[in-house]
């Protein structure tokens, strides 16, 4: 990705600015995601103002889950777009992939949350124009999105046309979540679109307004309102002499009936409020204008960074920037005051993973929040508490006891929401069944593990009593019921699962799963026994609503008989039964590719199941989590072995390898992992 | 539209070829529509193979109506696209709006139905490539669509990537009609997508396959199947030396459960057949290949044109081409063997008018079919017979008797399907209510008029007895019940309507409506009386199912008291009560504009109602239909007056003015109208 200058910014901006120095339409999608703006409530994917083939415009709001139709699973719906602004220069569409791009840079200032783009462009006819774009999602008022365009004709007078509004024709890859909404212009200035999701009945109100200036002086440009199917826009036209600057501000706001502020209202009342509040917020915003609104948001970012910025000493400024980049994305993806919502596996920077929460939250994201913002960590774990209903239901559906967490989780009521079908099977020509919802069960242990971590770090008694005990003991109970007795080996096993390494399906005794399940049950037992002894009154009360006695009995009967895979004579722990007997192939063609999953181009899932290849290394995650359980020598041997067989086709993979390498003193490998881990 | 060379083609092709000589992205939409391919069963909008901003890919199949959700009206859904082929030249997308277009022409051969495009393109890096594209929709097998690409590197070896398949992410301007379908690759060669509309339950099976040749020799290029959300495609890559030619054929076919062939099957059985038949048709097609399939289609076009081509003597070959162009589009828009479906107001060349049938069919299209293909005319009028249920229901809903035809009509069961809201009101900022479904009532008389014309031309007794008598008498009965008695003037009036001139709403005694209603009632009366006298047995049988006695009584009581607007002392007939008292404004700014309806940018519907301006001239249509009723002098005076006040903002307008001018001997005006009437 050498088109990105990560290490940009000088002076006080040093290592705060991510810069794209060359415009290359092939990387539209990557940059839309990397430069994403947001505040935890909403995220705006950073599609450019003008349109390009291959773009994806996404405006996602946390918690607004909807199931488009019976053939789909629930997902965050793509709200009507407000990022698109068509710019007509003497009647022709401005677009950087025609004419000549004489200057170009796009920058995301992580410190202030502002995205800017600076362009000098010559039209195919040779007409030079300077264009500067600015955009932010407010951290001060989570509903607000600010945009600003500055257009300066350099060589001659230009008739500038601006077509800009709200576009409800966007979909999630073709799935339309919203009914055609109501569209209205107020006072010729405020555009409104209010629409409702077709299944969950979430109302989204999107408002936008424009302010126009010429050389700093406010202009009253006649704005023609145009209402078409699922769109509403204003069309403006103004002649700008060479050397003068037209400024168009586009201020927008978004409210939905799922907003936390409307939590106590009926859905009808909440729906009504969205439109009224949106218009009201925008009226005030219009008085303030882009610069003032941005200033307030920048101040909120300053307050955010002040206690949180992690400064490192590094030779390469990139390292500092990369760290801040990660912290920035953690900031925009998490709604830390709303326990009704989780964090999407891709945040809200795009439609991928549908806004669903996976084990990623607990194992990869929560450590950060636990150390820097325990309140946020608590909110996120409370989300898991709210989804216990789905976990109990899933356990019941599979014939188990206790809480079996969904592999993918959305709105609290939704339960398991993992899709059933994925990409093409290269051999059969059919879509590949997605089995993770059924077989990737370790998430229950991951959640229990993290609740315990949270307790250890915070000593948050209130949370543990209200939520934590139930999560740990009832996931423990699930595992106890899940165990399978092997009469031959006289041990309890966990068969037919998928571990973190999703390239292996239907495996028996996955090391990660077995160890983590064992840990989960151990925790549950310990907690029950300690509570009974040390907090008898609380314990008795708790027994009234939780089957703690049964849980204790079921776990204690089995715990010590669980099979935990042990190292062989080489010191290697098999990832699952029979792993070392798999076929070895040359993995070089699939390593360090531009896209992940290239092995699927040559092998189907069934074939990959028989090959000694990993998407990510289960054992290394296990070492990372249960650090004390394994001696360093064993870790290093396994690290070397599994690293060689790992394609890192999961974005979660490299960070684990990096931490492990670091622990093992393999500095060079650790650093290489750090520089190449997706942020 | 000077970018189009209408008068293209030489030798035997003279005045058969519509040519676009310059590629201009601003006219993407126009050309997609003008170059549309089809066979009455399906139409493929002629979007280019490679993607462009602003394109609209439409694949519409007659009769597949679906209502996407409760906020929409039913429409022809956009089927998964097969026109898109992404061409990667050394890894970069081929697109004519970047690099240099050294040669370009696109041609639609009306005689053969083949669309071709010839391009010599230099990439921004200066790499020259010749690309030739061919496409047809088979007139021999209505399910088949053929495509062919020929790519010849001119300056150096090029690695050519082809990404091509079936894309179900398309929508109707954001409305998604199809559930996510099943996707499958058979034998690595046949791509299949089977999906179902979400309301009407119509199953659509789309299949596509590719054949690859290098210098005429069939190639086995590894094709990677890629299945994503709502898409399935093959990705191929091949290195082609300079001067050699890669040929990629893309053969596709479409079947739906609404197909006439499945009429007698249950919808489940029909759904099953779509997939099986599609695959079977495509297997055969693959054996034949593009050239052979095209040859068969060309032969079908030859047989089609042989008796139908209208040759005119003209100084300007454009006139001949324009006539053929009109005949071509009439050929591709009408499914002349299926009386379950009508003709959409825009044919199936795009999403506009949603595939709904208006009065356009009877008044503007049917005369052609009556003269050239009476069987087709009969099929189209049978469609109106099948929709009588909706007409009876609409009359009842409004408190009238008889048959009140829907203003917009879709599937026979649907009844009235006119949408309720349109574009923006420039004054209030709200969407403009669409009142035509309620107020534009003349369609019932238009249909009766055309049934009578059909009878006069064909003497088709079977049709009249089975369908025609009912249509004419029951629309007559509707009008009798619709009349309003004016006690002061002692006359029957028709108030609060919209005439063909839709710029005037809620008008009283619209001349067109009153005269046509009177004619309709007169016809009904005449028919009833003649049948009773001349065909007493048939008449008695008919009375058992139709209220002919009541109809006769109701009409005969009122007919002679209907107010028919008369010329004033200038010899001008008012279009409706009070028309001559309306305000005159300077219409110059709104005449001959690039887009229609520009008056709405300055005035809202209410204001336009008070201005002496016409969208199209009602009186002239009336003169055209009831030719004998008015003397030539009166016609000419009215022609001159109304022509001056007409913006021709309806595409139906100019043709009427042209015919009238011709009748009146105003040759120059008639010819101007002919050259400027939309085909």
Care to describe what's here?
2 copies of one chain form a homodimer. Chain A folds into 3 domains: 4-265, Glycoside hydrolase, family 65, N-terminal domain (Beta-galactosidase, Chain A, domain 5), CATH 2.70.98; 353-565, Alpha/alpha barrel (Glycosyltransferase); 567-679, no CATH class. Helix content of chain A is 34%, strand content 21%. The longest helix of chain A has 42 residues, at 267-308. The first copy, chain A, contains 17 helices and 24 strands. Chain A is globular. By secondary structure, the first copy, chain A, is α+β, with helices and mostly antiparallel strands. Chains A, B: Belongs to the glycosyl hydrolase 65 family. Chains A, B: Keywords: Glycosyltransferase, Hydrolase, Transferase. Chains A, B: GO terms for molecular function: hydrolase activity.
Oligomer status: homodimer
DSSP strand (E) fraction of chain A?
15-25%
How many discrete domains of chain A? 3
Unreliable residue runs of chain A: none
Gyration radius over CA of chain A: 27 Å
Largest sheet composition of chain A: 11 strands, antiparallel
Name of the CATH superfamily of the largest domain in chain A: Glycoside hydrolase, family 65, N-terminal domain
CATH domain topology of the largest domain in chain A: Beta-galactosidase, Chain A, domain 5
Mean pLDDT of chain A: 95
Taking the alpha carbons of the first and last residues of chain A, their distance comes to 13 Å
Helix content of chain A: 25-40%
Query: Outline of chain A, from the CA principal axes?
Result: globular
CATH class of the largest domain in chain A: Mainly Beta
How many E-type strands of chain A?
24
Domain Glycoside hydrolase family 65 N-terminal (chains A, B): 20-258
Organism (chains A, B): Neglectibacter timonensis
Family (chains A, B): Belongs to the glycosyl hydrolase 65 family.
Protein name (chains A, B): Family 65 glycosyl hydrolase
């Amino acid at each position: 990705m050498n088109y990105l200058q990560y290490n940009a910014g000088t002076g006080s901006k040093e290592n705060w600015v991510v810069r794209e120095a060359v415009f290359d339409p092939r990387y539209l999608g990557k940059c839309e995601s990397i430069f994403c703006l947001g505040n935890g409530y909403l995220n705006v994917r950073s599609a450019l103002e003008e349109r390009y083939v291959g773009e994806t415009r996404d405006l996602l709001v946390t918690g607004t889950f909807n199931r488009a139709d019976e053939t789909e699973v629930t997902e965050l719906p793509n709200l009507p777009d407000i990022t698109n602004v068509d710019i007509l220069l003497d009647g022709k569409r401005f677009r950087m992939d025609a004419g000549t791009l004489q200057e170009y840079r796009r920058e995301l200032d992580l410190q202030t949350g502002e995205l800017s783009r600076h362009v000098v462009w010559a039209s195919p006819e040779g007409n030079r124009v300077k264009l500067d774009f600015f955009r932010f999602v407010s951290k001060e008022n989570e509903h607000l999105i600010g945009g600003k365009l500055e257009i300066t004709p350099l060589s001659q007078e230009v008739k500038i046309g601006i077509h800009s509004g709200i576009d409800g024709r966007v979909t999630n890859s073709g799935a339309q979540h919203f009914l055609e909404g109501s569209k209205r212009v107020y006072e010729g200035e405020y555009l409104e679109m209010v629409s409702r999701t077709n299944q969950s009945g979430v109302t989204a109100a999107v408002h936008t307004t424009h302010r126009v200036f010429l050389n700093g002086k406010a202009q009253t440009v006649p704005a023609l309102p145009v209402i078409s199917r699922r769109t509403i826009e204003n069309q403006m036209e103004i002649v700008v002499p060479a050397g003068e600057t037209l400024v168009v501000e586009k201020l927008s706001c978004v409210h939905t009936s799922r907003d936390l502020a409307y939590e106590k209202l009926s859905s009808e009342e909440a729906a009504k409020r969205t439109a009224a509040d949106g218009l009201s917020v925008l009226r005030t915003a219009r008085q303030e204008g882009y610069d003032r609104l941005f200033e307030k948001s920048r101040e909120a970012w300053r307050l955010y960074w002040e206690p949180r910025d992690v400064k490192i000493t590094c030779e390469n400024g990139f390292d500092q920037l990369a760290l801040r980049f990660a912290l920035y994305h953690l900031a925009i993806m998490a709604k830390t005051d709303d326990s009704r919502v989780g964090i999407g596996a891709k945040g809200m920077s795009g439609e991928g993973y549908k806004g669903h929460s996976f084990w990623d939250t607990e194992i990869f994201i929560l450590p950060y929040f636990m150390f820097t913002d325990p309140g946020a960590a608590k909110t996120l774990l409370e989300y898991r508490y709210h989804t216990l209903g789905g976990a109990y239901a899933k356990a019941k559906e599979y014939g188990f006891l206790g809480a079996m967490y969904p592999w993918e989780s959305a709105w609290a009521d939704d339960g398991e929401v993992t899709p059933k079908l994925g990409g093409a099977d290269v051999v059969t020509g059919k879509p590949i069944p997605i089995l993770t919802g059924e077989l990737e069960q370790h998430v229950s242990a991951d959640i229990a593990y993290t609740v315990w971590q949270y307790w250890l770090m915070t000593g948050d008694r209130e949370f543990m009593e209200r939520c934590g005990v139930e999560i740990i003991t009832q996931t423990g109970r699930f595992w106890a019921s899940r165990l399978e007795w092997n009469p031959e080996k006289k041990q309890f096993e966990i068969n037919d699962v998928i571990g973190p390494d999703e390239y292996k399906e239907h495996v028996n005794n996955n090391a990660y799963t077995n160890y983590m399940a064992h840990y989960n049950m151990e925790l549950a037992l310990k907690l029950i026994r300690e509570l009974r002894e040390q907090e008898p009154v609380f314990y008795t009360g708790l027994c009234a609503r939780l089957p703690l006695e049964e849980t204790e009995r079921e776990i204690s009967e089995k715990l010590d008989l669980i099979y935990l895979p042990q190292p062989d004579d080489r010191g290697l722990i098999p990832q699952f039964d029979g792993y070392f007997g798999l076929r070895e192939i040359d993995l070089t063609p699939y390593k360090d590719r531009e896209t992940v999953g290239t092995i699927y181009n040559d092998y189907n899932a069934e074939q990959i199941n028989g090959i000694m290849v990993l998407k990510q290394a289960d054992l290394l995650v296990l070492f990372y989590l249960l650090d004390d359980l394994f001696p360093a020598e064993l870790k290093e041997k396994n690290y070397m072995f599994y690293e060689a067989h790992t394609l890192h086709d999961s974005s979660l993979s490299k960070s684990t390898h990096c931490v492990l390498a670091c622990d093992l003193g393999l500095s060079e490998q650790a650093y290489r992992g750090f520089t190449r881990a997706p942020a």
